[in-house]
Every structure is written in structure tokens, then in C-alpha cells.
């Protein structure tokens, strides 16, 4: 019974606060996008220097040091992230303040935008999620079926991202047009033609 009650309660809360959850999702997407831009423009060379010792240029892989124990192996990724965070804090000017400013500003902007414009937020979320799944599925399929075609797409460089941007833009426009379409009202007895009187 408790599981059923919890499920019903969660379903009701999800319906009532749908706009809020959608705004939170948009805020998360905004943070990811802003952090990606922040990484590409500022953090990329520092991260490259940090991973230079463990980077295999031929296979394009970053290897973690092998731990001696199982517990150490479980802690290795978290230790690496901690070391990277400390390294960036020591070498990147105003790293902590800049990181916090990017996350807070992008998250707050996405949250406010999602609350004020729910239809546009739905279109943005649907376009972003659809493009992500489509591109991910296409890459996985090409990797299995046609590795040469995948290599050609990767060799396009910036033009490949332009193609992804075009697909995302087309999806966004389609979703925006679909959101703005007014659903036809159901015909009522008053709207219909009067029935002829029986003879």
C-alpha cells in the first residue's frame, strides 16, 4: 500500500509541478551548454596539460593509473576528478568564482525562462533531446555498420557541428510551430446544426 500511495502522490506532484520540473530540466541544459562553452574557450588547454601524462595520442584515450586494491580502483575516478579540480583551481585565474558564476547565471536564466515561457521551453527541450538521441544513435549505427562514413563525418570538423546545428534548428522550428497550433474545439450541441423537426 505504501508503494502505491507513494506512486500516486509522486504522479500528482509531477502533474501539478510539471512547469517547474520542465524549468529545472531547461536550467540543467543551460548549465551544460554554458559549461561546454566555458570549457572550450578557457579550460581546454589546462585540462590537456593535466591529462598529458595519461593521454594515448594514437588511440585517443585517457588512462587512469591502476590501483592496487579493489577499494582503490573504485576511488580512482573520484581521486582523479579531485586532483583535476585542485589543478584547475591553482592554475586557472579565478576558476572557482568563474565556474560558480557560469553555473548560477545559466541555471537561473534557464529556470526563469522555463517558468515564463513553458511552450518555448518544451520546444527547446524536445529539440535538444531529440537531436542528442538522433546524433548519438547515428554515430553508434555508423560505428557498427560503416566506420568509414563515421570517419568522414569526424573529418569534417566544424562543418559536422554545423550539420548538427541545422538539424537542431529544424527540430526547434518544427516544435515551436507544433506548440503554437491551436487544437480544434470539440463540437457541442450549440455549435452543431439544429436537427430537423420530425414530420
UniProtKB/TrEMBL annotation:
Keywords on record: Membrane, Transmembrane, Transmembrane helix
Transmembrane regions listed in the UniProt entry: 7-40, 95-117, 124-146, 158-177
Protein name per Swiss-Prot or TrEMBL: Uncharacterized protein
Organism lineage: unclassified sequences, metagenomes, ecological metagenomes
